[in-house]
Amino acid sequence: MKLTIAHVLALIVAVALLDVGQTYMNALASKAGAIVLALTVLLLIADIAVACVESFREADQDTCNPHSK
Q1: Residue 37 in contact with residue 18, Cβ under 8 Å?
Q2: Where are the domains of the chain?
């Protein structure tokens, strides 16, 4: 959940920086926005990986002990 929140916040910052860069023709803000956007992609991939690992862990526990529920 923390990665999801970080992803959403980083995405908001990236869009804001890209918008400022485009509005004021500021190359530095545009580059910073692109870097933050790339970081949001990494956060998204990390979030998906963590969710997959947790899902596989839960599935493995259910397979090993089917009467636990």
Answers
A1: yes
A2: 2-62
